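Office hours follow-up: a student asked to see two folded examples consecutively, so here they are.
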Amino acid sequence: MRSTTPPEAVPATTPAASLVFTTVLSHGPLTRAEIARRTRLSPAAVTKAVRPLLEVGYLVEDVDEGARPALGRPANLVRVDAGRALFIGIKVTGDEIIAVLADLCCHIRVARHVRLTDREPASVLPALTALVRELLLEAEGFGVRVRGLGIAVSGDVDRTDGVVRYSPFLEWRDIPLAEIVGTATGLPVTVDNDVRALTVAEQWFGAGVGLSDFALVTVGAGIGCGLVVHGRVVSGAHGVAGEIGHLSIDPLGPPCHCGNNGCVEAIAADPAILRGVREATGRPVTTAAEALELAHSGDPGVREVYARAGEAIGRAIGSVVNVLGPERVVISGEGLAAYDLFAEGIRDAFAASAFGTAAQCDVMTRPLPFEEWARGAAATAIQSFIGSDTRQE
């Protein structure tokens, strides 16, 4: 149970209708002929899928004056009415809650940040629900109902049951988050791992649009990876697919909080870098900004810490590319602030570890503001609303 009342949903009641809607959402506006080409559906099937969506206003048609044929009327473009529904997305970190109010095309209309004084659920959940109520009031000003709420949390998250099994940064275990927040807010709630949520947003609205296979690697407080294989976001049988942060690339390396040694996260995540910088300099460095300043001032010991981190990330990306063969790997996260220090190590280690033609994979960086993590949560709520969240494996 996610809501006190039966939620409205997009009337995409067939796989064809869901495919048409998500195609227009990601690629639109499109002519019906272009929809048929992209979905490989017949023109009749496209018309059948589009008609009910037009009738209830989730899709609208505009005349494409720029595509006027030699004879006859101009073609019509089909697009999603972004303002037809609103969604709330929330990202919970160890220090703050970031929340956004987004439309059906996942454009952020309002963003809010709330600092956390501690990480206990008894403190975080009231602050979270208060923030949701604030955004519900904001939504009234747009004259549109909020149709869903997405929450993104780091760690092992069971999206099907809406349970946070274990979040190391929050130190949460077995929290039925969807049930708690759904009861408190009356909204349908989707809870997912934060990197998978960001991957959904990139797949539908960002650097992964149009790609059947890609990976999103996030660098910062942790090292994460979201995977899209054959057009599906992959979570795996146990919900932890993509945990490249816990690839042990150096069995004799530093201990990781997971219990192993030499994990990518134990070498390249922010806490590991800060620890390495303190060891290299003897200074009580406590923030990433301080570490960056030392590195950019030319301190060789500090620059070596970042070089090792880049090498670890590059080797991890090489492993992903060798195993899955994606068309693209997108590197993002707050750790990109240090990318100039990482870049050479990533490039060299990736080139050395990628096998054969796997090295042709497009590796790109995509700096994103922290609100994008909350936008990713909103994207999972949109996904659930449309009924295409079954496209996760």
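And the second, which I mentioned at the end of office hours:
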Amino acid sequence: MKRLTEAEKIQPHWWRKSLIAGVLGLTFAYGVVGVFAWFGPGGIDAPMKVQLNMWLISFIWLSVVSLSFLFKTATTALYRLTSANIVIYLIFIGLWTLL
């Protein structure tokens, strides 16, 4: 079995990965829940949607934070999570302009 080189290993930048995932993961979770809240079934005024949205934020955020440690480096985590945020907010703005 072949040993991995230093470039192939996941780097232990856990402080930076935690900070990046904590901030960008939360903004990503807000974006996903915003799209669901405004444009999901029943719209923003659907009954019981407030509780679902509240719990969805924590589920998505903690999932992103947990999975952020699988990125090779903190720079990769920064680029990928920034890209995910840009995409979700472009979707939100695009759907908002269609209203």
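Two things to take away from it. The chain is about 70% helix and 0% strand. The chain has one domain: 13-98.
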